[in-house]
Amino acid sequence: MQSRSQRRRRILKQCIQKKSKIEDNAHVTQEIDSEYEDVSDMEEDEHIQYEDEFDDEYESEEGEINIDSEDEEILQKEEQSQEQSQQNQLQQQPIQSKLKRKKKGMEQESQENQKRVWFYDEAENLDFDNRAYNMLHRVTTEWPCLSCDFVLTEEEQQQYKNKEYQKMNKYPYSVYLAAGTQAAQPTKNQIYLLKLSKMHKTKYDDDEASQSEEDSEDDNLSNDEEGQVHLSSVTGLKCGVNRIKTMNGQAIAAYWNENGDVNILDLNPLYKKLQSNQQSQFNLSQLHHKVFKNQHEGFALDWSRLKVGDLLSGSVDGKIYLYQLNNNDWIRENKAYEYHKGSVEDIQFSPIESFVFASCSTDGSLCIVDTREGKHKQAQILVKAHNCDVNVISWNQVSATLVATGADDGCFKIWDLKYPKNDAISEIQFHNKAITSIQFQPNSDSSIAVSSEDHKLSIWDFAVENENNNEEDVPDQLMFVHQGQKDLKELKYHPVYYEMIVSTSANGFNVFKPTLDEEEKKSEQSEEDQAQIPVIKEEDLNKYFQQMSIQ
Description:
Blueprint: H1 4-13, E1 30-31, E2 48-51, H2 69-92, E3 98-101, E4 107-109, E5 116-118, E6 133-139, E7 145-151, H3 154-161, E8 173-181, E9 191-199, H4 213-218, E10 228-235, E11 241-246, E12 252-257, E13 262-266, H5 268-275, E14 281-283, E15 289-292, E16 298-303, E17 311-315, E18 320-326, E19 329-332, E20 344-349, E21 356-361, E22 365-370, E23 381-384, E24 390-395, E25 402-407, E26 412-416, E27 426-428, E28 435-440, E29 447-452, E30 457-461, E31 478-482, E32 490-493, E33 501-505, E34 508-514, H6 518-531, H7 538-547
Parallel strand pairs: 10-14
Antiparallel strand pairs: 1-3, 2-3, 4-5, 6-34, 7-8, 8-9, 9-10, 11-12, 12-13, 13-15, 16-17, 17-18, 18-19, 20-21, 21-22, 22-23, 24-25, 25-26, 26-27, 28-29, 29-30, 30-31, 32-33, 33-34
């Protein structure tokens, strides 16, 4: 049995590079030691380029190849003599050359499905306006990660507990991230704990002179100062990490690995050193941790916000287990919940009831379970959410009757649990590949972020009313589209900092805050308008008054 999440992990492994770097523009060249004997056997992928045995790139219609003058005459003769035979060869037999997946930096249109897809090329960057982001920072680690989560400081934990959210107006910022790797060799895998500090506003990087006095006051240090990354790690893992979740922002993490183990790990020794920018490396055996064995691996994992220590896990064999903290030790219930007919892909506790949780599955369903009922074979609410795999869910933290689902066909929906038999209250088919992550903004009942295998992360606000606009196929509720990351896997809103998002992909992490505040936009527009008003000098004004005859 193979879930969609497993197939997505397999694709990520094909993208792995072993080169540690931290830079502003991250690129990944993905090599396939082809498991396909025939190019025609591969899944349809428009961004594959072919290379011959000398590693020279096949010339594409959009690209150009620089040719040395001494070789130009020889190449012209070869092209004339081989043109016809080459065309026949391409039509009659599969190409037995080395394949390299490249990021394409152009908008392509498939002849079969006529869907617009954006790709990212090593040779060119996606052009964007820095003003679209208040802040955008990129980090690349040695190995890519399927999953990540925030670790909060003590002050942030208290704010999170009290549901206090901060608007980001006091730069620079620092955050801690826990992540699990997908390395080329199983024994190379690690748990990362990263400290990203001195993250300044990047909005005015393209126009240094236009930064307002207000922004200068907010950003105490120059924007030219580079951000800093300090990384600590846990070694001794025997396989890759599928999903990682921190316990309400504390330095305690639960993670699924490929061997089917659910692990609970104390990261406090790493966190305490990172607070003073000390990087460290611990072996797993040196840290306090507990392992729960399972027959199959899984991806679904969630901590309860209401009852500290409660944990849920879901595996590809359809089993869901509840773990509870008892006398500083975790105990797993002996009996599993088994009501799904397929792999459990995602799971989440209710934001208002500690005994209720939601789950989704490859069987296309969204289920709500009340643990007080004691029925392990039946869900209390079952919604046939999609006609394909349901990959991810998100429970709204403000309006607790709203749950979002993201599916394999690129569609995501929002459901009102007050009316479980009704159709979804919203259904969006914007992405053209599988949804990989979805989350409501923590302090909003209408804003949601969605990532997809089409390399896009979109942000939506369903409080926006439909209006007549001139943009075709662009919904009014679409607020923002983030691009430039390859094979997006997971996104997370920061639990405290308003609108800050971290996203992980095959080419690293992005930490950003989009420019979405309408009041801020109006203020900037007003500043620009004022800048265009001519300045009248005092001496010119005095001359003008002298010319006026006032009797």
